[in-house]
């Protein structure tokens, strides 16, 4: 159980360090696998992005538990902006300095850049703005890192790789990068916003997070039609299955936590 929004540390069944490892390892493996095989690779890339989103969901929950929940969108959009910048800078610096043979460092640099910028922003918010949140530095860095891996994962699934040239052509030029900014922001910030309160539960929040992550994967599959091939169909099918299973788990968990469930009917046809 958590005191969701009580100004106390958020506790839960899943250890934050374990989720950090899942997000980083899963996210990086997914990105690297994006160019492995034309159909399976992009699916793995999206699943890696799902891992990164779950990491971000837990970090949002930790930092937002110190307030009323009104700061969730603020730190979400801010950290996602940092994540997008870090992701493109990380893979772009390899090409900018013509570091041939070091292309595999791109995703790692993206993660490092995003987390460092997130850490600096958190220090400013804490030391200058005066936000008295003990986990501010760690959580902001984690959310930014999760955002970078998630955006890069979904982007590489469409581009078929993580090189800056592929990403600029397949994701940035058509404007998909802006869509991923919004989608990943909502996927990371919505679960705690939807579940916060005195009866908020970490596992239930993560189940909601899984459903929003797979929902983003579904939209990625639709966007991947532009790349041709059959990867878009595989991404769409796996995303639909993942969303159905995770959302059903979230609904069941909500039923179990509720004192009672009543059907209120649909809205009236005529205003009363």
Automatic annotation (TrEMBL):
GO terms under biological process: methanogenesis, from carbon dioxide; methylation; one-carbon metabolic process
Q: Example GO molecular function term?
A: tetrahydromethanopterin S-methyltransferase activity
On whether Translocase is a keyword of this UniProt record, the answer is yes
Regarding the membrane, this protein is recorded as: Multi-pass membrane protein
Indicate the transmembrane segments per the record: 12-33, 39-63, 75-96, 108-129, 141-160, 166-184, 205-224, 230-247
Query: Which pathway, metabolic or otherwise, does it act in?
Result: One-carbon metabolism; methanogenesis from CO(2); methyl-coenzyme M from 5,10-methylene-5,6,7,8-tetrahydromethanopterin: step 2/2
The yes or no answer to whether the keyword Methyltransferase is present is yes
Q: What residue range is the signal peptide?
A: none
Family classification = Belongs to the MtrC family.
Protein name in UniProt: Tetrahydromethanopterin S-methyltransferase subunit C
Species this chain originates from: Methanobrevibacter ruminantium (strain ATCC 35063 / DSM 1093 / JCM 13430 / OCM 146 / M1) (Methanobacterium ruminantium)
